[in-house]
Amino acid sequence: MLSVWIPKALAGLRIVASLLFIEHGTQKLFGFPTPTHGMPSILSLQGIGGCLELMGGILILVGFQTRAVAFILSGQMAVAYWMFHAPKGIFPALNGGDAAILFCFLFLFFVFSGAGAWSWDERSSSSRVSNSAVVSG
What is the rounded distance in angstroms from the CA atom of residue 35 to the CA atom of residue 32? Predict the structure, then answer.
């Protein structure tokens, strides 16, 4: 009964997660909202991470190439956790890495699930299906 709502629930999860992820990118790149650790150089690891968070977050938001982008962002979050958070201690809630772990596994989920409803990916796949139906019909 509820399974008919899965594509829309997945889209809601994708949209909310991407908006939160974009916020981390704008915080690093533009200081909005207020940066927690100052503004990094654009060519630093933090700056590159901010670019990935902003651009990748926007691509996830609209659901464009979701699986590929999510794979890259999942890896970015795994690297961020082990480089910046894990050295501060074993407990993610104490080392500040809980969001990185959550984003890592959420994006990994999107690699397998795809974007869900209301996405560029869904729109382009349905237009390919309708175009192929016209050609073969």
Answer: 7
